[in-house]
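A reminder before we start the practical. When you read a complex entry, don't treat the lines as separate problems. The point of joint prediction is that each chain is placed relative to the others, so the output describes one connected object in space. Small molecules and nucleic acid strands, if listed, are placed in the same frame. In the example below there are two entries. Take a minute to note the order of the lines before looking further.
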Amino acid sequence: MSNETTATTERRGQAPRGERIADWADGRLGIYSLAKANMRKIFPDHWSFMLGEVALYSFIIIILTGVYLTLFFHPSMAEVTYHGSYVPMHGIKMTQAFESTLNISFDVRGGLLIRQIHHWAALVFLAAMMVHMMRVFFTGAFRKPREVNWLFGFLLFVLGMFTGFTGYSLPDDLLSGTGVRFIEGVILAMPLVGSYLQMFIFGGEFPGHDIIPRFFTVHVLLLPGIMLGLLVAHLILVFYHKHTQFPGAGKTNNNVVGMPLLPVYMAKAGGFFFLVFGVISVIAAVASINPVWAIGPYRPDQVSTGAQPDWYMGFAEGLVRVMPGWEWNFWGHTINFGVLIPILVFPLVLVAIAVYPFIESWVRGDKREHHILDRPRNVPTRTGFGVAWLVAYFVMLIGGGNDLWATHFHLSINSITWFVRIAFFVGPVLAFIATKRICLGLQRRDKDKVLHGRESGIIKRLPHGEFIEVHEPLNQEQLHVLTQHEQPEPLELGPEVDENGVRRKFKRSQKLRAKLSKGYYGEDNVIPKPTVEEYKEITSGHGHH
Amino acid sequence: MKKLSARRRHPLAALVVLLFALAVTGGLYAAFAPADKAQADDTAQSLAIKEGKKLFAVGCASCHGTGGQGTSDGPSLVGVGAAAVDFQVGTGRMPAQQPGAQVPRKRNIYSNAQIDQLAAYVASLGPGPSVPDKSQYSAAGADVAKGGELFRTNCAQCHNFTGKGGALTNGKYAPTLEGVDPKHIYEAMQTGPQNMPSFGDGTLSPQNKKDIVAYLGAVNGDKTASPGGMELGGLGPVTEGLFGYIFGLGACVAVAIWVAARTTKAKKS
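Here is the predicted structure of the whole assembly.
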């Protein structure tokens, strides 16, 4: 307004300090236009959208605590004799890596707490990434335009696994050393290149003197560097694509309903960071993790029972534990299928979930953008696949911890191994079928709710003696949520002969696609949602139901 | 002495000397000679064996045979020694409740005296390791660090780094060593109960055994401090992962739900 402009021009003296600083920065960094574009960025509110934030914050916590740890850690495999303050280890020969880890734990101020925060944060980081990934998967948030970001997230998860692995190997304790020995075995099991690769990576025979310093570089520099880059790209894409939202009143594919970044989300996200930091710190303060002093230094001639990797590598451990120890020997060479097959299955398990979005979009032939999330029940095939994958993953985890399952549930470890061998193949199939049936049941229930309303629990007796339950009709918003989803027709290949009566040729991929499409939208795989006519017909009947 | 010397030529002197010599010889013989069966009946040892045999007939003979010679249900006890009995009965493993993959530890129902009697009986069947005395397994004079090294080399494969136990094949297991009497740990090493190999004094010297017992007392005893906080069972990454998921991520999700629920809602105008 005009009198406001006059007011600013008439202002005597200098502008407030904050404004002057902002002006200065704007002249050099262009922050005004950046802020204008981004400060009012809208984010929808849902707790499950904050799982990624948990991952992000635990990653920041890992970096902060990791920097502190590098100040005191010596990534060296030179042998020393321990004379520090942990008495039961006095006079024991160990590597400098292990000695410095003991020193961090017992002699560096706050060292043990920081070590435990670092390790617990790593477990939470991977767990949060996985659960975040599942949220994205089951709600279909990976659909166009977010496929690339899905891959970025997937890569972050896989890199996180390896960063974690190299990290927990660094202290060179008996537990992690056994894990490194495992990796050596994995490398050696690769046909042709195995022994060369092993010599190259370990710089000689196991354990040598190179592996810890190399893991250190990989753990603190290479992998976190790549992850940081991917993380920034991931966040930029989240910003660029805008956030998805659950269906609801006023929410369309073309808008985002929620709160602005500034001030609401800045405050919320900032506060949430400290809450996550607090939760992890409390856990690190009360619960021990990787007590290397009790585990002892690594020596290739020693091994302990219960030698498992951290949970995110547990499924790989499970694959190796349950695989029968088959091997072929010929012309002085050995192919060890007991290890080779698990290391081939290991990437397949991960890739299966990573490529799913592309398979689904191909089957659906869907090129549109999607910003409204699916309710998992409305896409039974996808939900079934996801649950099947999770079941396979969990079965592998059981295999990885088979000894603890045996001792704690008083079972035979051999029976558990056989259970895992069978359940790895059968479990996912059963899970797929069961999940699909549950989804369809829930769809039926939704349809019922739309047409007949919510069961109110009130029983009414009619004049002629009949008892009925009063159903309350849903409100508009609930009706919208239950009926907004699309139910596309399955892909049809068309008539087998063309207009001239000549047999049309279909590529095998086309036939497969039609079949899969039927699996998604065929008659038995979807419950038709109520039509307007059905709804009108029933609601006009004066609430007999 | 004069009297004695004066009478040394008395006609009965020779007789007195002879009788004295006989008495001394006989007394020394009685004191030092191995007791024969008829005489031994009255010593404490043989009483213990006798009582032990009675207890054995009631509690053990059904599987190990009336003479401890073994049956198809239980091994021969000839030569297992008193240490084996003291371990098996003292930890409540024997008498076994039922056959199975492994006989578990349970409450011991015998008194110490009864265990000693049983041990004496079984020891009488053939030579074997005897029950160690306290100086052999006490922590005094033991090298804990050395014990740790020995434990990790010889025991950790089955019993885990700090003796929390682990699984073996077909339902068998290496039990946890938490809360186990040092004497029983020592005896277990001596005798190799159930699936455990025995570590005779040629394999692990008595000093080595002492070191191992002391190490377990230091890292897995009642007074062991856990510098990092709750031990979570001391079982390693599986329990840590479970704890991280439930309490780490669980708490973060709970906080997220709380944060997400507290939003300034758009006001209806």
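Discuss with your neighbour: Chain B has a mean pLDDT of 86. What might explain this?
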